[in-house]
Specification:
Length: 324
């Protein structure tokens, strides 16, 4: 068999096309725009802001950024929370363009896992000085997820959390409070058929979570971070639980000790298919990808993308990933 040489990294020194969502994330949009302009002016780097507003959606702006970047050897940059980063990465994957991020979300797992600061001025220095490197992307039915994809209780938790954020603002404490309320309220278990490497298994679970971010696995205390680093996805299912057991599980997760719980089923895989156990059930299911909730047709096919995402990131490992 002939070995195929990997493609060369895309240009990372061309003009920046920054897709910025003023309504996303926890940052100050005007301050972010000022920091981008100041850094590019100091470096003599041309840039253009493509703002997301009432007249444009994030995917539309991302597609425009990719088209323009390809024409001039430019870099497509996502500035916003996880949902914005996800939508722009969807457009960039396989385009031949380098991808940059200016994280402005609450948790910023993607940026932190790759050593990219949450401070816009500091992230701009990474963007202007570092080189593009391939990073792993997860797919579910062809849709990108950078951090995780999930169904069941977790999408409900995300919807409840958005309601809390609208009332109380964006913070990790608000996110924890919303999660606690959702878990204590409980929900129906899913009856699923999960197939890995051609072997099917019937499971009953309140939620199925597929992770693509080693940092998130580590901070929850789950043992699959190394599997993600090695090129796999981490699939985690909960056994049916009482509300009290669910509350204790949430506390374990907050303390980074979720891996000690015996109520979890976990496995590493590069492909995973999920369907309802019975053919007469609904043929759509609510799915969350990187914090954005949508309906998707069954079956769900999870996989590691064959194309790498060429992310501009520091050469050195991020401090949070290097620490035990």
């Amino acid at each position: 068999m002939t070995n195929v040489a990997p493609p060369p990294p895309p240009a990372s020194a061309g003009p920046l096309f920054v897709v910025l969502n003023p309504g996303a994330g926890a940052g100050d949009s005007e301050a972010a725009q000022a920091a981008i302009g100041a850094a590019c002016a100091a470096a003599g780097r041309p840039f253009e802001l493509l703002l997301v507003g009432a007249a444009h959606s994030v995917p539309e702006r991302a597609a425009e950024a990719v088209q323009r970047a390809r024409a001039v050897g430019g870099v497509v940059v996502a500035a916003g929370g996880d949902g914005t980063l996800n939508a722009v990465a969807q457009a960039v994957l396989g385009s031949g363009c380098a991808f940059g991020v200016l994280p402005q979300g609450t948790f910023n797992y993607f940026g932190r896992a790759h050593g990219i600061p949450a401070d816009t001025a500091a992230a701009m220095q990474v963007l202007l000085q570092a080189r593009a490197q391939p990073v792993q992307v997860g797919l579910v039915n062809g849709r990108v997820f950078l951090v995780n994809a999930s169904l069941g209780l977790y999408p409900q938790l995300l919807e409840d959390r958005e309601g809390w954020k609208a009332r109380f603002g964006r913070s990790r404490l608000v996110a924890f409070g919303a999660g606690l309320l959702t878990l204590l309220r409980g929900g129906r278990s899913l009856r699923l058929r999960v197939t890995v490497a051609g072997e099917g298994r019937d499971v009953r679970t309140p939620t199925l979570f597929v992770g693509n971010n080693a940092l998130q696995m580590e901070q929850l205390g789950l043992p699959l971070a190394q599997a993600i680093d090695a090129g796999a996805l981490a699939a985690i299912m909960l056994k049916p639980l009482s509300r009290w057991s669910m509350f204790k599980l949430l506390l374990r997760g907050a303390m980074g000790r979720l891996g000690e719980a015996d109520q979890l089923l976990s496995l590493a895989c590069t492909q995973l298919q999920v369907n309802r156990r019975h053919a007469f059930g609904p043929r759509r299911i609510k799915l969350a990808t990187d914090g954005e909730v949508r309906w998707m047709k069954l079956p769900l096919d999870f996989s590691v993308a064959t194309d790498a995402l060429w992310l501009i990131r520091p050469d050195a490992q991020a401090p949070e990933r290097a620490s035990p």
